[in-house]
Design brief:
304 residues; TIM Barrel; six-stranded parallel beta sheet; two-stranded parallel ribbon; binds zinc ion
């Protein structure tokens, strides 16, 4: 009996160790590893675990810039003196949205890639994915360059968080290849999220969105939303193991998110949470790497 127990205990220890190895994963694709399509998937292993339990949050906004909501959110961030990250679809950049993208950069926030467009990358062939990724990087780097900013690498978030399910190739391998071509190894740092506010869900109110952040931080009731029989359904869940820190997923395209952001910033003040920039988080650091665009990569090669 005792021997059985020891064996069992050993297996549990091995299991915990392997979880730890996962937890130590950097956010960017691993060196010297060929990602296998359809097998290497999932997002939970890419949580920013260094933030858990720290009362620190990173605010991230996807799918912008939005001419109506993004400027109001920028005003809020100014008022509370915090920095955020905006993952934009660079195909959105037209004459009305480019000034907002410049404003994001000028006010010290991070302008990051949410790909060229918002299509599901699992449904794109390798060339289309590669071209979209390259194009979005160049679009953002051009805006930085026009303001005289020199920033390391780029942050990238997959639309819907979808990747790895195209049987013909793996997105992470393409990211590695593009990084090597444009910068150096692993200068495209991909970002998922720890706290999904569900602000993208139809019918989500600003109160439900901000309460979700509070519950994932401290425990309590949260609202989730999912599709059932072709209808969107909301459900209340109980968060028993709050993270007490992490990357927060928001979308700067709905008025509800603007009001929720205001509540989240007030909460952060009242409850002593720190709103920190993405670049300060261990998992998203570029370490000592330079990650500057190679000189022979002409930004003008893809138009203005
Ligand atoms: Zn998105």
């Amino acid at each position: 009996m005792n021997l059985y127990f020891k064996k069992y205990f050993f297996i549990i220890q091995l299991f915990i160790f392997s979880l730890d190895v996962f937890a130590l994963n950097k956010q960017f694709p691993a060196d010297n590893y060929d990602y296998k399509p359809v097998q290497d998937i999932g997002i939970r292993q890419y949580e920013a675990t260094s933030l858990h339990g720290t009362k620190k949050i990173v605010l991230t906004f996807d799918d912008g810039p939005n001419t109506h909501v993004t400027p109001k959110i920028l005003d809020l961030l100014n008022k509370y003196n915090v920095k955020a990250t905006f993952f934009i679809n660079t195909s959105n950049l037209d004459s009305k949205k480019i000034p907002i993208a410049y404003r994001i950069l000028e006010e010290g926030h991070i302008l990051a890639s949410h790909d060229f467009d918002h299509r599901d990358n699992n449904k794109e062939n390798e060339n289309v994915f590669r071209e979209g990724l390259l194009r979005s990087i160049f679009d953002i780097k051009k805006l930085e360059r026009n303001l005289g900013l020199v920033k390391k690498g780029i942050y990238f978030r997959f639309p819907y968080g979808y990747y790895g399910l195209n049987a013909a190739y793996h997105h992470m391998n393409v990211i590695k290849e593009v990084s090597k071509k444009v910068y150096d190894e692993n200068c495209i740092n991909f970002v998922f999220w720890d706290i999904d506010t569900k602000d993208w869900g139809p019918g989500m109110t600003s109160l439900e969105i901000s309460q979700n952040v509070k519950s994932y931080m401290m425990g309590g009731k949260a609202t989730t939303v999912f599709m059932e029989n072709n209808r969107w359904v909301k459900k209340i869940i109980n968060i028993q193991k709050p993270l007490m820190g992490g990357v927060v997923l928001l979308h700067d395209k709905r008025e509800e998110t603007y009001y929720a952001t205001e509540s989240i910033l007030k909460m952060a003040n009242d409850l002593n949470w720190d709103v920190v920039p993405l670049s300060s988080v261990k998992e998203f650091s570029f370490d000592k790497k330079e990650c500057l665009i190679k000189k022979d990569m002409s930004l003008s090669s893809l138009g203005n």
